[in-house]
Amino acid sequence: MKYYLIAGEASGDLHASHLMAALRQEDPQAEFRFFGGDLMTAVGGTRVKHYRELAYMGFIPVLLHLRTIFASMRQCKADIAAWHPDVVILVDYPGFNLKIAQYVHAHADIPVYYYISPKIWAWKEYRIRNIRRDVDELFSILPFEVDFYERKHRYPIHYVGNPTVDEVAAFKASYTETRDAFIASNGLAPSPIIALLAGSRRQEIKDNLPDMIRAASTLPKVQLVVAGAPGIEPEFYRQFIGEADVKVLFGQTYPLLSHAEAALVTSGTATLETALFRVPQAVCYHTILPKVTAFLKRHVLKVPYISLVNLIAGRTVVRELVADTMTVDNMSRELNRILFHSTYKEQMLKGYDDMARLLGEPGAPAHAARLMVELLKKRKERR
Predict the structure, then answer these.
(1) Which residue in 140, 177, 229, 241 has a CA-CA distance of 20 to 30 Å to 122?
(2) Global pTM?
(3) pLDDT per residue over 66-116, tens digit each?
(4) 177-359, what's its fold?
């Protein structure tokens, strides 16, 4: 069968690549065409456009690149119509992908599957109307979404497990480098390692990293290591590091988390990855106009947390320092609690274990692929 996938950022490229590999296991004749990145390209098929031409974050960057975004959307619609796949699989990236779903639903007899469902439980809940109308099957990777979609909105979905569980489990099974070897191979000091995961986009890094460095630098005898994001050049990080004793490692986030004693993490999948490696963390997210953002967080956001760890656990497992609470003093204080208060640390690690149980065992891409192929075969039989 022919599968058309659309991923608009680095995390989508990663998850979509694993889904593609799993689809090929279920359907050896699978043909792929996609908007995505290097990881999807490595699986095989035809890449129509790289996600780097789509990945704009924030109101101003999106506004400045509207012409490019609309041109990409027109290209994507025309390409789907010309290739006429058996299914269109959307991977996260709702601003773009829900428009594509609307077009496919209105103009083609092609089912639309959504893998990694839009986070409408946090904001833009009205999008449920579009999802209900334009998406044939929705595949969730967060267990609490089942209750949100099915109980609140009477929209049935498939919880398939979480692919990050698979990615971390696969890495742990194959990784054998000792801490001493990791330190030696990367020119690090033998001090306790504080991992700084400041986001994957330039604006996130610019907003979060400087204060993260200031906060972690208040601790004595530690080594600060930044997890370099894909597609971000080393020079970009140097302007924020200056003369500070901070290392930047690219392509080594999982090895870094394997050997870190603590972490400051920008909200996102990185908070979940850090928890699965059982590294105590504080979640930090800078915003413009922090007092206004704090008000909106209290009165507009539909959920009580921003980190996946707390959302999945359904309670506060890690401290969230967001908007007006993201200060150097608060981050420094939280790092001290994580490192030097054993009871506090143990409570956090227990919360990680509870979260992991709710996520379930590895196998998300395989489970999703199996369901997708079964549903497509049933559809063909009915026609």
Answers:
(1) 229
(2) 0.86
(3) 566 778 899 999 999 999 999 999 999 998 999 999 999 999 999 999 999
(4) Rossmann fold (3.40.50)
